[in-house]
Design brief:
8 helices; mainly alpha; two-stranded antiparallel ribbon; Serine Threonine Protein Phosphatase 5, Tetratricopeptide repeat
């Protein structure tokens, strides 16, 4: 995947939309900062909103490490991909969680560890990603964090995160996933009135 396609295809594989057509949060690899939220996290700024930018020279290096990390992850070289993503994260000015790129990178670190079957290593970056723009309310990030919690035996938190993924992405987000994750959601969420299962 080239640098251009990395920008077109966020680490989270699809954008999800509400029934009224509004997009849920999604991660972006770009230079922009988010906006501080009253809860201490950062949310993505509107496209036209003036926000600080990662200096162009630094961002070029960040992007190069991310591109290489994606390439290595796709090739199954998870250890080297991890180091590329960490180098990219370390380049971001403090506080790192303010940058859109931080959310993308932390999700990439978690995704990389998840694909490697290293669920303990995936947990913290996915949790940390929730402080950065584009992650809270992102169905894919909630799915991955829920799957990690499930695999680590933390069923209460797994159910919460997987339910959030379902509420944002519906059954579609569970396509190509082990059925056990959706089964947990079906245990904790009530079907709508007049239905015997979740839609």
């Amino acid at each position: 995947m080239g640098l251009e396609s990395a920008n077109r295809n966020p680490m989270t594989p699809r954008r999800f939309f509400t029934t009224s057509g509004q997009p849920f949060a999604y991660t972006r690899l770009d230079r922009r900062a988010g906006i501080a939220h009253e809860r201490g996290c950062y949310v993505m700024a509107d496209d036209g909103q003036a926000v600080p930018l990662v200096p162009a020279k630094i961002y070029k290096e960040v992007q190069a490490h991310c591109h290489e990390g994606e390439r290595l992850m796709a090739a199954g070289n998870h250890n080297k991909a991890f180091h590329q993503f960490l180098q990219a994260l370390d380049l971001l000015p403090l506080p790192r969680e303010q940058w859109n790129a931080a959310g993308w990178i932390l999700v990439a670190v978690g995704e990389n560890a998840f694909r490697a079957g290293s669920f303990r290593a995936a947990e913290q970056p996915l949790q940390d990603a929730m402080w950065a723009p584009g992650t809270i309310g992102n169905p894919w990030v909630h799915l991955r964090l829920g799957q990690v919690k499930f695999e680590l035996g933390n069923m209460k938190h797994a159910a919460d995160e997987l339910a959030r993924a379902y509420l944002g992405g519906g059954r579609d987000i569970f396509e190509d996933q082990d059925p056990k994750y959706l089964a947990l959601v079906e245990e904790v969420l009530e079907p709508p009135p007049g239905m015997d299962r979740l839609p």
